[in-house]
């Protein structure tokens, strides 16, 4: 059953919103601490200068209004000059702060994305089977971007706001203790409002992020499988699925916008109400002669600074809430551990001989009962260099069996050995360096032909790339392209035919030079001409390597040294082609069924030609 966009995988607990996650985020700012300290100093200087100009502005008012009729403008001129100097310095330090902190934020985001992507590459196929690609890319992009401000500017803002708040409050009290009590009485109410509404904003922010990720996952699936969508005229279905995810994110975003509007409106009302009261009471003090007009203006500036600082603190608090929601999704991935544990002391494996041994191997996917296992008590010893074919009906466990060799999955019973050692004793990169895979559905990356072949060994020379292409029967069609080896293949190799993609995949495997080779239906989707070229390339590739061949076309495996016939997760027959035919059983049934089908197809073709 299709899951709703944005819906979590069944059985997965929701990530806890732990404020300590912010400490983990800040660890990514550590390499940039010098830039951050400089940015912080620039912020503090800029904030400190901001505390000076209200006092000078008040002096300017008194110098103008309390000296009506005087021609001495010395004080006025000096005050204006000081104001201009302070504004200039504030602008310089403000620009320095903006650049330095933006540099820190960009670096932190880049490092966090690299770290998250690198970690994702270490996880097993089980993890990717449980998560949608769109959800993972959303966490990698949108969620990481959400926490950028927290790891850079917000900290500096907090420091600046602390300086402004403490300094402004101190200067408020020094200017007029009576007005200060009236102003400061509003602050606890502002903070309580911020915490109450901010907690709800945090929860809704997580809902928005989850909904956007769900919509992205639906779009990713539809776009990657657009040919299937269009061939089944399922565009309306995909529109509804994506539209449902967008609507869900829209509803959550509106809910967050309402809360943010409520927060903004509440802060605005409280701030301006406090200013109105200050003006009312301050005006009375001026009229009574207890306060000069300049002091009242100075006090108003400081009161505005206090209100603005408190409002900024609530804004920073909101950013923290949003970052908590995003960071919980990020660290949910970073805390994910592969179900393929690394050995404490890996056995070195520089160049394997290629012997593969299955000893009482059983395998069941996570959560399945033993009776529902895919493989049951398999015992097979494959000497180095032997070509082994795996045949059997669909669902017999052939692909699962070969996927155990490079440890895409771990056996759940028994032991799988390479060169006499359990594969779990080797480091995963060392083991997989010995294994080459040519699957039915070839995946090429959206670069050039050369880059795709070099994927097998990035440090190979141009001549080695060309030799690998020749061995794969690919050199002739590659050089027929105008750009040759620099031809761009398109996403997933869409600009190439199936046979061309498969031969590039074989060239990639040739260049890797593995000791163990896995061919999983490598020719089943090709036409006869392409199959002949690919088969010839495969035969060269198999020479001197331990090879496991999975094929439905029995004609492609009759020359194998050995054929394992599988049924329902068990090996029911084992031997060469001729012996298995003489033995009877499932192999002969499969062979004769396919032979009769091929005879029928040939008869139909002959009749059509005549």
UniProtKB/TrEMBL annotation:
SUPFAM superfamilies: ABC transporter transmembrane region (SSF90123), P-loop containing nucleoside triphosphate hydrolases (SSF52540)
ABC transporter domain location: 356-593
Keywords: ATP-binding, Membrane, Nucleotide-binding, Transmembrane, Transmembrane helix
Domain of life: Bacteria
UniProt topology in membrane: Multi-pass membrane protein
Transmembrane segments: 35-61, 81-102, 154-173, 179-197, 261-282
Residue ranges of coiled coil: none
Main subcellular localisation: membrane
Subcellular location: Cell membrane
Molecular function, one GO term: ATP binding
Pfam families to which the protein is assigned, alphabetical: ABC_membrane, ABC_tran
Record domain ABC transmembrane type-1: where: 37-322
Entry annotated with the keyword Membrane: yes
Record's protein name: ABC transporter ATP-binding protein
UniProt source species: Deinococcus antarcticus
């Amino acid at each position: 059953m299709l899951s709703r966009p944005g819906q979590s995988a069944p059985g997965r607990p929701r990530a806890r919103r732990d404020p300590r996650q912010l400490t983990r985020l800040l660890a990514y700012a550590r390499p940039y601490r010098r830039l951050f300290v400089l940015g912080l100093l620039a912020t503090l200087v800029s904030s400190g200068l901001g505390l000076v100009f209200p006092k000078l502005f008040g002096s300017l008012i008194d110098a103008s209004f309390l000296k009506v009729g005087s021609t001495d403008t010395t004080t006025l001129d000096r005050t204006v000059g000081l104001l201009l100097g302070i504004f200039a310095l504030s602008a310089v330090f403000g620009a320095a702060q903006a650049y330095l902190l933006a540099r820190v934020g960009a670096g932190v985001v880049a490092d966090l994305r690299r770290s998250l992507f690198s970690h994702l590459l270490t996880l097993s196929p089980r993890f990717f089977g449980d998560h949608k690609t769109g959800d993972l890319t959303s966490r990698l992009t949108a969620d990481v971007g959400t926490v950028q401000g927290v790891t850079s500017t917000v900290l500096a803002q907090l420091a600046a706001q602390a300086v402004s708040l403490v300094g402004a409050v101190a200067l408020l009290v020094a200017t007029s203790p009576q007005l200060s009590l009236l102003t400061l009485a509003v602050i606890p109410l502002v903070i309580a409002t911020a915490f109450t509404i901010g907690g709800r904003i945090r929860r809704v922010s997580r809902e928005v992020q989850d909904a956007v990720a769900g919509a992205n996952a639906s779009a990713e699936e539809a776009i990657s499988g657009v040919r299937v969508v269009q061939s089944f005229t399922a565009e309306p279905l995909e529109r509804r699925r994506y539209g449902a995810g967008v609507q869900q994110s829209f509803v959550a975003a509106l809910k967050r916008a309402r809360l943010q509007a409520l927060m903004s409106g509440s802060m605005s009302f409280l701030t301006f109400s406090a200013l109105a009261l200050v003006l009312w009471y301050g005006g009375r003090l001026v009229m009574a002669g207890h306060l000069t007009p300049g002091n009242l203006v100075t006090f108003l500036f400081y009161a505005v600074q206090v209100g603005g600082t408190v409002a900024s603190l609530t804004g920073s608090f909101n950013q923290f809430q949003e970052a908590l929601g995003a960071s919980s999704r990020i660290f949910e991935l970073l805390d994910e551990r592969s179900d393929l544990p690394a050995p404490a002391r890996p056995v070195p494996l520089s160049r394997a001989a290629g012997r593969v041994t299955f000893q009482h191997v059983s395998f069941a996917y996570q959560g399945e009962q033993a009776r529902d296992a895919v493989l049951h008590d398999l015992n097979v010893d494959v000497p180095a260099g032997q070509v082994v074919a795996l045949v059997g009906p669909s669902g017999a466990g052939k692909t699962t069996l070969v996927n155990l060799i490079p440890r895409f999955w771990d056996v759940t019973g028994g032991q799988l050995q390479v060169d006499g050692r359990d594969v779990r004793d080797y480091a995963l990169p060392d083991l997989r360096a010995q294994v080459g895979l040519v699957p039915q559905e070839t995946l090429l990356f959206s670069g050039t032909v050369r880059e795709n072949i070099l994927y097998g060994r990035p440090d190979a020379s141009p001549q080695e790339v060309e030799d690998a292409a020749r061995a794969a029967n690919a050199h002739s069609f590659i050089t027929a392209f105008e750009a040759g080896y620099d031809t761009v293949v398109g996403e997933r190799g869409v600009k190439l035919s199936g046979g061309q993609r498969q031969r590039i995949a074989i060239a990639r495997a040739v260049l890797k030079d593995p000791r163990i080779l896995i061919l999983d239906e490598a020719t089943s989707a090709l036409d006869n001409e392409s199959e002949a070229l690919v088969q010839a390339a495969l035969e060269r590739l198999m020479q001197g390597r331990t090879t496991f061949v999975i094929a439905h076309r029995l004609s492609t495996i009759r020359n194998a040294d050995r054929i394992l016939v599988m049924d329902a997760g068990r090996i029911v027959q084992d031997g060469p082609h001729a012996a298995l035919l003489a033995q009877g059983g499932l192999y002969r049934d499969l062979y004769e069924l396919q032979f009769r089908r091929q005879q029928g197809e040939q008869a139909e073709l002959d009749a059509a030609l005549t």
